[in-house]
Amino acid sequence: SLELHLDSLRSMLAVCFGWVSPASPLGCGAADGAPWLRAPPATVALMVATQPQERGVAAGRKAVLGSSRQRARSKHQLITLFLRAQSAQQRGSTSLARSLLQRCLRLDSADAHAALALAQLEAAAGYPERARELFLSARAASPANLKLAHAHAVFEARCGRPAAARAAFGACEAIAPGAHYTAHALGQLEESLGRTEAARAAYAHCSDSPTVLAAWAALEARHANVSQARSLYRAACAAAA
């Protein structure tokens, strides 16, 4: 009969969805799932409809937790490799340090610390093109990283590429307007190129920094502007007080 078929369906669903255990004598008591056996078809349909959703939510929570743990493990591994690379570099083991930093970037290609360290390592080892490529790719991945942009600017200045250095210093200014180390480094670059007015303009852009004011005063002293140099030195002392 139809009722027997419904009873069989209820029994199978109760076992499949865990409402009772497979060994339970269905129908022997409320705790063993008898309510589901007596439930009307509409109630059974509702349980079937909501059960996968509930399981899906639980599975989603489990996936998020697993993903969080995986990220934590990767971060720990990244830090360990980075510290080992620093130690290797301090011991003069350039090849090992390079290998460890490359492993860091394989774990996280956007890690600015590893990219900066590897770029500086390549520059110190005499591979400016490798260093430049690393700086550019790292800055593309972390465009708001001031330390990375500043290091790139200084690198280009040391390589005798003032236009590239100015562009990188410009990025620094966009990230952190009025940063004294940007103004100081750019002023020093312009001075080294004999561009006195450009150096003055760079120093004037951050005239509340003792370091910048002292550099500006030294510039004026070299050009025999004694009165202005004294004034700037006094301002530097006042700013440092």
What topology emerges from the helices and strands here?
Elements: H1 2-16, H2 34-38, H3 41-90, H4 94-107, H5 112-124, H6 128-141, H7 146-158, H8 162-175, H9 180-192, H10 196-204, H11 210-222, H12 226-240
Helix pairs in contact: 3-4, 4-5, 5-6, 6-7, 7-8, 8-9, 9-10, 9-11, 10-11, 11-12
Plain-language structure description:
- By secondary structure, the chain is an all-alpha fold.
- It has a domain at 71-142: Serine Threonine Protein Phosphatase 5, Tetratricopeptide repeat.
- Helix content is 78%, strand content 0%.
- It has 12 helices and no strands.
- It has helices at residues 2-16, 34-38, 41-90, 94-107, 112-124, 128-141, 146-158, 162-175, 180-192, 196-204, 210-222, 226-240.
- Helix 3 runs antiparallel to helix 4 (94-107), helix 6 packs antiparallel against helix 7 (146-158) and helix 9 runs antiparallel to helix 10 (196-204).
- The chain is elongated.
- 27% of the residues are buried.
- One of its GO terms (biological process) is mRNA processing.
- One of its GO terms (molecular function) is single-stranded RNA binding.
Could you name the key traits of this structure?
TPR-like_helical_dom_sf; mRNA binding; 12 helices; mainly alpha; 241 residues; Serine Threonine Protein Phosphatase 5, Tetratricopeptide repeat; 78% helix
Mean pLDDT: 84
What is the first-to-last residue Cα distance?
98 Å
Indicate the radius of gyration in whole angstroms.
34 Å
CATH homologous superfamily label of the domain at 71-142: Tetratricopeptide repeat domain
InterPro entries: Mbb1-like (IPR044624), TPR-like_helical_dom_sf (IPR011990)
GO molecular function, one term: single-stranded RNA binding
